[in-house]
Write a structure and sequence with these properties.
The chain has helices spanning 2-22, 27-34, 82-98, 119-133, 152-166, 190-205, 241-252, 290-300, 323-327, 366-374, 382-385, 388-402, 408-433, 437-450; strands spanning 38-47, 53-64, 70-77, 104-111, 142-146, 233-237, 256-262, 265-269, 278-280, 283-285, 308-309, 312-313, 318-321, 333-336, 355-357, 378-380. With 456 residues, it is α/β, with parallel strands linked by helices.
Length: 456
């Protein structure tokens, strides 16, 4: 994982350097954007249930604060490394700028497999971690949140410990809290919902009369591109929080979600009706009933056998396929929402989707990105596509600081406005300069950050 973390960090830094040089920024400005402002690395003991103590390693990387307080999650993972945490902090700086938020980037991590800890041990670890970072975070300094293997319950322990240390209430220091502790309504669905908002914004541009035809990367035959939502098919790799809510909300918006997957494999459902979507190995795929699929998964513990469509679940016509096969299905829209680097040099020539929405962090390798972009595939980058989560975290922070809370409908409405504004800025840059959306996103972000250098 350390090598993978190094590769991730080098990739993020190289992309920033390449973009900054294209913008003709000075070397010292580029260095200011690349180098983290602070890296906190520490070891801390945690008492186990048997009375023994175990030493854990943790980090909090505060990458850049030019646009505002540091912002970023805390992950618990056995293969977390300093390089990985630094890379993610760097990308958070870009993501917050892309989303138009008054934040810089940060990330935290602990080398631990939380599944091997009891609830009491996990709570003690969470509290001990906060003791290490408490003196350099704060609502106007650094605002942590949940990330991989952390959740509102863990954040609740963390903010409770933080408030004990500080001796006063400070709900705005952490986001992703339970609603009862000042968390925002709509936060759970926010990342998936934001991805669907961006997808719809993109589709509103892709028609024969759109300026999209002038984009170098968007070389699709738009007159043959079916823009009727009910007939646009989607395959989603990953059925965790992000993938599930993307699927659920997309289906509610009229898209046909025909394939979803978890770590054990992907499911598709066939039918002989004329209402079916497309043919795959003599099996006609139809839209899955996403709420029923989730209900089935909760009962079974896996998606295998959850062939739910049209309000019923049955095995007739259902099929379990490999995760990799899902990526190669002839869907209109592909949504990798689980792991990084799943679309790579090994399968990039087999990708049939016209649009890829990067809901996972870094699901498309650099080589695959170059190949697919040159072949007309539209890739919405992760720094935009999955920024709905941090956007609602910002809205939670604002509510905490104001002491006034919005309804879920109000939160969702504000999320839509902010995601569409972020998309429009990137689309405008892409069309004006005839560059891919990812390059446009990084240019928009780096211009904002560079504009603050020397202004402090």
């Amino acid at each position: 994982m350390e090598n993978q973390g190094k590769k991730m960090l080098e990739s993020a830094q190289n992309l920033i350097i390449k973009t900054a040089k294209n913008l003709r920024l000075k070397d010292e400005v580029i260095k200011r954007i690349i180098e983290p402002e602070m890296i906190h690395e520490f070891n801390f003991p945690v008492r186990m249930d048997d009375g023994s103590f175990k030493l854990f390693k943790g980090w909090r990387v505060q990458h850049n604060s030019l646009l505002g307080p540091y912002k970023g999650g805390i992950r618990f993972h056995p293969q977390t490394s300093r390089e990985e945490v630094q890379a993610l902090a760097t990308l958070m700086t870009i993501k917050c700028a892309v989303a138009g938020l008054p934040y810089g980037g940060a990330k935290g991590g602990v080398v631990v497999d939380p599944k091997k800890l009891s609830s009491a041990e996990l709570e003690r670890l969470s509290r001990e971690y906060v003791k290490k970072i408490a003196h350099f975070i704060g609502e106007d300094i650094d605002v942590p949140a949940p990330d991989v293997n952390t959740n509102p319950k863990i954040i609740a322990w963390m903010i409770d410990e933080y408030q004990k240390i500080k001796g006063y209430k400070s709900r705005a220091t952490f986001t992703g809290k339970p609603v009862s502790m000042g968390g925002s309504l709509g936060r759970t669905e926010a990342t998936g919902r934001g991805g669907v908002i961006v997808l719809k914004a993109l589709l509103s541009k892709l028609n024969p009369k759109s300026e999209a035809q002038n984009l170098k990367q968007e070389s699709l035959e738009f007159r043959n591109f079916n823009l009727e939502f009910p007939r646009l098919t989607i395959g989603i790799q990953g059925f965790g929080n992000v993938g599930y809510y993307f699927a659920k909300i997309a289906a509610e918006e009229g898209f046909s979600v025909v394939a979803v997957s978890d770590s054990k494999g992907a499911i598709i459902k066939g039918h002989s009706s004329k209402k079916t979507v497309f043919k795959k190995d003599s099996l006609y795929l139809e839209p899955l009933d996403i709420p029923l699929v989730m209900e089935c998964k909760k009962k079974k513990g896996t998606l295998a056998g959850c062939y739910c469509a049209g309000g019923v679940c049955d095995v007739n016509g259902g099929k379990l396929i490999e995760n990799g096969e899902l990526l190669e299905l002839p869907v209109d829209i592909l949504v990798p929402a689980a792991l990084e680097n799943v679309i790579n040099e090994k399968n990039m020539k087999k990708i049939k989707a016209k649009i890829i929405i990067e809901m996972a962090n870094g699901p498309v390798t650099e080589e695959a990105y170059e190949y697919l972009t040159k072949n007309g595939v539209i890739i919405v980058p992760d720094v935009l596509a999955n920024s709905g989560g941090v956007t609602v975290s910002y809205l939670e922070w604002v509510q905490n600081k104001a002491g006034y809370y919005w309804s879920e409908e109000e939160v969702n409405s504000k999320l839509e406005v902010m995601m569409r504004q972020a998309f429009e800025a990137i689309w405008k840059k892409a069309t004006e300069k005839k560059i891919p959306l990812k390059q446009a996103a990084f240019e928009v972000a780096i211009e904002k950050i560079a504009g603050c250098v020397g202004i402090e």
